[in-house]
């Protein structure tokens, strides 16, 4: 369970989130809790525990030291690209970006991309790292009781709904890792 998104926050419970990924849950916190250590990891600020690095996964909260900046932070956040905002059934993409059911399509749908995937000034280098970046099916994070599943062995058409910039198809392997990004005609 991540840090709540509203209400009063406890420094000790933030420490539990940082150490155990369980705000307000179990887990022993030893001695003092220094905000410096919560933000920077380690214990050089005088904390009784040694904290891991901040989880700066895509879409996670980036705390800055104020208590309110921790709202919604999740130590177990999974960095991902998405969630995608909708489906498009009627757009006609020629190969290699076929519409659902076309030759080479691994489906199941064409996806609209959110702002994290629409830097079409440079579609082959817009935040994705080949053989590194994993695409996930949604933002149902473990910290909110959900699970995420990789988009395994998919061809996902990501497009800009207007303008003259190219559309792209993203191919993933069996682990959901992007193996290629191709410009669509």
> What profile does the largest beta sheet have?
5 strands, mixed
Specify Rg, calculated over alpha carbons: 20 Å
User: How large is the share of residues in beta strands?
Assistant: 5-15%
Q: How many domains, in number, for the residues?
A: 2
Weakly predicted, low-confidence segments = 82-92, 99-116
Run of helices and strands: HHEEEEE
Strand line-up of the largest beta sheet? 1-2-3-4-5
Question: Quick one: how many beta strands?
Answer: 5
Number of alpha- plus pi-helical segments: 2
Distance between the termini: 44 Å
The portion of residues assigned to helices is under 10%
Query: What is the SS-derived class?
Result: little secondary structure
Shape: elongated
Average pLDDT value?
75
What topology does this entry show?
Layout: H1 11-20, H2 35-40, E1 87-88, E2 110-112, E3 155-159, E4 168-172, E5 178-183
Parallel strand pairs: 2-3
Antiparallel strand pairs: 1-2, 3-4, 4-5
Pick out its properties.
2 domains; 185 residues; little secondary structure; five-stranded mixed β-sheet; single chain
What this model shows, in words?
The chain is low in regular secondary structure and 185 residues long. It has two domains: 1-77, no CATH class; 79-185, no CATH class. 9% of the residues lie in helices and 11% in strands. The chain contains two helices and five strands; from the N terminus they run H-H-E-E-E-E-E. It has helices at 11-20, 35-40; strands spanning 87-88, 110-112, 155-159, 168-172, 178-183. A five-stranded mixed β-sheet has the order 1-2-3-4-5, with no helix packed on it. A hairpin with a 5-residue loop joins strand 4 and strand 5 (178-183). The longest helix is centred in the first third of the chain and has 10 residues, at 11-20. Mean pLDDT is 75; it is low at 82-92 and 99-116.
């Amino acid at each position: 369970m991540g840090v709540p998104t509203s209400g009063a926050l406890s420094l000790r419970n933030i420490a539990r989130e940082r150490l155990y990924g369980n705000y307000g849950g179990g887990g022993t916190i030893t001695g003092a809790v220094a905000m410096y250590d919560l933000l920077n990891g380690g214990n050089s600020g005088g904390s009784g525990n040694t904290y891991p690095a901040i989880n700066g996964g895509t879409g996670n909260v980036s705390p800055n030291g104020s208590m309110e900046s921790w709202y919604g932070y999740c130590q177990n956040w999974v960095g991902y690209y998405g969630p995608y905002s909708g489906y498009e059934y009627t757009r006609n993409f020629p190969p290699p970006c076929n519409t659902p059911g076309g030759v080479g399509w691994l489906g199941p749908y064409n996806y609209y991309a959110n702002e994290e995937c629409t830097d079409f000034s440079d579609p082959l280098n817009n935040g994705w790292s080949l053989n590194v970046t994993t695409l996930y099916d949604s933002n149902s994070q473990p910290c909110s009781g959900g699970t995420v599943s990789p988009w395994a062995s998919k061809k996902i058409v990501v497009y800009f709904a207007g303008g003259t910039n190219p559309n792209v198809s993203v191919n993933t392997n069996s682990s959901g890792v992007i193996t290629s990004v191709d410009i669509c005609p």
